[in-house]
TrEMBL record:
GO terms for cellular component: plasma membrane. It comes from the Bacteria. The lineage of its organism: Bacteria, Pseudomonadati, Pseudomonadota, Alphaproteobacteria, Rhodobacterales. Residues 15-256 form the ABC transporter domain. The keyword Cell inner membrane does not apply. It comes from Palleronia marisminoris. This is Sulfate/thiosulfate import ATP-binding protein CysA. GO terms for molecular function: ATP binding; ATP hydrolysis activity. PROSITE patterns: ABC_TRANSPORTER_2. SMART domains: AAA (SM00382). Pfam families: ABC_tran (PF00005), BCA_ABC_TP_C (PF12399). Transmembrane segments: none annotated. It is an enzyme of class 3 (hydrolase).
Length: 259
């Protein structure tokens, strides 16, 4: 696999938004946002409560249609495509934990994700033989997220942080070049935050990542580039050292009651 195919490498834009705007009955939640996510980088979208991060993320992942603006991925206009179509192009939004089957084992969960990707039949509960074909590949994704010792544990038995790791493994099974993570640290205890941070950094070595994240020390630790939203607009962009000393960014966070 070339670096280009993995979505890594020094040059090029993976995802680009131009003039992205979303209005809800006249209320402008996202206003004329233009941003570029460079291939092979970890890019964070941050901002105080109500800044428009979730709306922006839903627009970029095609869960919402923009009122105005254009989105391109790998040079292709994806503005009107559905999430499943962009997933086929290699840009995948991480599933919610609820998408993990609690009564199935870690291995079974990843196997099913693989089977779905390969467009195999949906009656997976009947064709055990069919599924075992994916075992080796599933094991490699389980190893990538550090869950090998839990291979045969039911998902329900895993800690919250390990469930998130499993959820990421099922996303990796779709072989994404770009991953979009919605608040990957939400609800995590400190030890899980460290585990998932390490995991995201490792995954980001060979893929492009865009994440919305509230935990600023995680953002500082992981991100190559950060876009700060406030009141639906881009307030600042840069690395953590740059944005953290930007007076407008500090004001926006203090004004919104953050630390
Ligand atoms: N479906 C909707 N209908 C009307 N207004 C909405 C809708 N979705 C979001 N908004 C409004 O858009 C603004 C931005 O919301 P959004 O959830 O994108 O912000 P956020 O930065 O993700 O906030 P938080 O950090 O609190 O999750 C808010 O004022 C919100 O009330």
């Amino acid at each position: 696999m070339t670096t280009e195919e993995r979505g890594t490498g020094s040059a090029g834009v993976a995802l680009e938004a131009v003039g992205l705007t979303k209005e809800f009955k006249g209320f402008v939640a996202v206003n004329n946002v233009s941003l570029k996510v460079e291939k092979g980088t970890i890019h964070a979208l941050i901002g105080p409560n109500g800044a428009g991060k979730t709306t922006c993320f839903n627009l970029l992942t095609k869960f919402l249609q923009p009122t105005r603006g254009k989105i391109t991925y790998a040079g292709r206009d994806i503005t009107r495509l559905a999430p499943a179509e962009i997933a086929r192009l290699g840009m995948v939004r991480s599933f919610q934990i609820s998408a993990v089957f609690a009564d199935l084992t870690v291995l079974q969960n990843v196997r099913i994700a693989l089977q779905r990707t390969r467009g195999e039949s949906y009656d997976f509960w009947r064709s055990e033989k069919n599924l075992t074909r994916f075992d080796d590949e599933a094991r490699s994704y389980v190893a990538e997220v550090g869950l090998s010792e839990f291979l045969n544990h039911r998902a329900a038995e895993l800690s919250y942080g390990r469930k998130r790791a499993l959820e990421i493994a099922t996303t990796l099974a779709l072989d994404p070049k770009m991953l979009l993570l919605d608040e990957p640290m939400a609800g995590m205890a400190q030890e899980d935050v460290e585990r998932i941070s390490t995991l995201i950094r490792r995954i980001g070595e060979t893929r492009t990542i865009l994440m919305v994240e509230h935990n600023l020390s995680v953002v500082a630790d992981l991100s190559d580039r950060i876009t700060v939203l406030a009141r639906g607009e881009i307030l600042a962009e840069g690395n953590y050292a740059e944005i953290s000393k930007n007076p407008e960014v500090i004001d926006a966070y203090i004004g919104a009651g953050h630390e």
